[in-house]
């Protein structure tokens, strides 16, 4: 069996995932950013979601103790457990590839919900989940992550089925279609507001050419600007 041949590698990967998955936090930001055009939310305003089955929640031991991160309402993963302990926009898209078909693919749904929350709150999906990146975004992979999550969770061949029995499956399909509609509406808003950028507020649109580019709005943390 191939999994026996790669047992050491698979064990390493499994342990690595354990180190980079975090619980939602109610911790407050240690400092304020005063040059943002909006107020950052405090913990008591964040709609924390705690609906994951107990078997999943008990497996997540890491807590967000980063005083400079924007607090998120759902479980999430980060690129590593050392320097990059924020969620990153396009990094997450590629990490979704490694989650598909595994016991941790439930995180895909939570991560998408975190991105939707960030856009609904700040009107941008930031480069990473910190005030320092509020001036810029990354390639808009939100719609791709939404579709990956939707199609994977409805795949009848998925070994990690989320609904059993004809009636339960039917209701589950209806609920996921509603979820898809809500999520795609937010992705459309992101595309129109941030990347089409008719108001020229985000510095991501090349006027007159129909193209998008990287840009910074000169807000947040100056030394982190692109």
Q: Give me the count of strands.
A: 4
Report the C-alpha radius of gyration, rounded. 19 Å
What share of the residues does DSSP label as strand, in percent?
under 5%
Note the run of SSEs as H and E: HHEHEHHHHEE
Q: Give the overall shape, derived from the CA principal axes.
A: globular
Spans with pLDDT under 50 lasting ≥5 residues?
A: 40-54
Strand count, sense and barrel status of the largest sheet are: 2 strands, antiparallel
**SS-derived structural category:** mainly alpha
Question: Mean pLDDT, nearest integer?
Answer: 78
Describe this structure in words.
This protein is mainly alpha-helical. The chain has one domain (2-224). It contains 7 helices and 4 strands, in the order H-H-E-H-E-H-H-H-H-E-E. The protein has a two-stranded antiparallel ribbon. A two-stranded antiparallel sheet has the order 3-4. The protein is globular and about 55 Å long.
Descriptive labels:
single chain; 226 residues; mainly alpha; 7 helices
Quick summary:
The chain has 226 residues and is mainly α.
List the helices and strands and how they pair.
Layout: H1 2-5, H2 7-20, E1 21-22, H3 54-57, E2 76-77, H4 89-99, H5 106-122, H6 142-154, H7 166-196, E3 205-206, E4 211-212
Antiparallel strand pairs: 1-2, 3-4
Helix pairs in contact: 4-5, 4-6, 5-6, 5-7, 6-7
């Amino acid at each position: 069996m191939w999994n026996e041949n790669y047992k050491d590698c698979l064990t390493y990967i499994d342990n690595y995932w354990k180190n980079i998955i975090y619980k939602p936090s109610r911790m407050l930001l240690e400092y304020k950013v005063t040059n943002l055009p909006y107020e950052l939310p405090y913990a008591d305003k964040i709609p924390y979601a705690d609906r994951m089955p107990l078997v999943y929640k008990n497996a997540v031991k890491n807590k967000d103790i980063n005083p400079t991160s924007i607090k998120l309402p759902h479980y999430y993963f980060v690129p590593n457990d050392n320097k990059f302990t924020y969620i990153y926009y396009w990094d997450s898209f590629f990490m979704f590839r490694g989650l598909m078909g595994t016991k941790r693919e439930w995180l895909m749904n939570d991560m998408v919900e975190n991105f939707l929350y960030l856009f609904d709150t700040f009107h941008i999906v930031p480069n990473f989940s910190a005030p320092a990146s509020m001036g810029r975004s990354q390639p808009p992979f939100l719609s791709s992550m939404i579709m990956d999550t939707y199609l994977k969770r409805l795949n009848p061949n998925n070994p990690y089925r989320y609904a059993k029995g004809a009636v339960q499956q039917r209701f589950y399909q209806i609920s996921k279609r509603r979820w898809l509609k809500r999520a795609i509406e937010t992705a459309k808003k992101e595309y129109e507001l941030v990347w089409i950028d008719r108001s020229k507020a985000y510095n991501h649109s090349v006027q007159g050419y129909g193209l998008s580019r990287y840009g910074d709005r000169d807000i947040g943390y100056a030394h982190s600007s692109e």
